[in-house]
Design goal:
Length: about 100
């Protein structure tokens, strides 16, 4: 009985790590577009530090996808927010347009 109790956690760990996790794949692609948005925001505000990021919305059409993120930035002692919108080709991933707009 003791062998079964000791073997059970090892079996559970081994079994759980061998299963494919499809949400991880989606999170990786989502994170890459967020990274692109951060890079584009840093081009406009090179001395800023990103404190918080949030995906606001995305819209996918047949040939174009649009994603919008909100970033809270710190530059010196000032904190402020900007909206970064990325428009890209849905098939190739080629960026068509990037807009960085400060929050009013």
């Amino acid at each position: 009985m003791k062998k079964l109790i000791l073997a059970l956690p090892i079996f559970l760990v081994a079994f759980s790590t061998s299963l494919p996790h499809s949400p991880t794949v989606q999170a990786v692609s989502q994170k890459s577009w967020e990274d692109v948005a951060v890079k584009e925001t840093k081009k406009r505000y090179p001395m800023s530090q990103v404190l918080f990021s949030q995906k606001i919305w995305d819209k996918k059409k047949t040939d174009i996808t649009v994603k919008q993120y909100r970033f809270t930035l710190r530059e010196g002692m000032d904190d402020f927010s900007v909206y970064t919108t990325i428009t890209f080709d849905s098939d190739s991933g080629e960026i068509k347009k990037v807009q960085v707009v400060p929050e009013a």
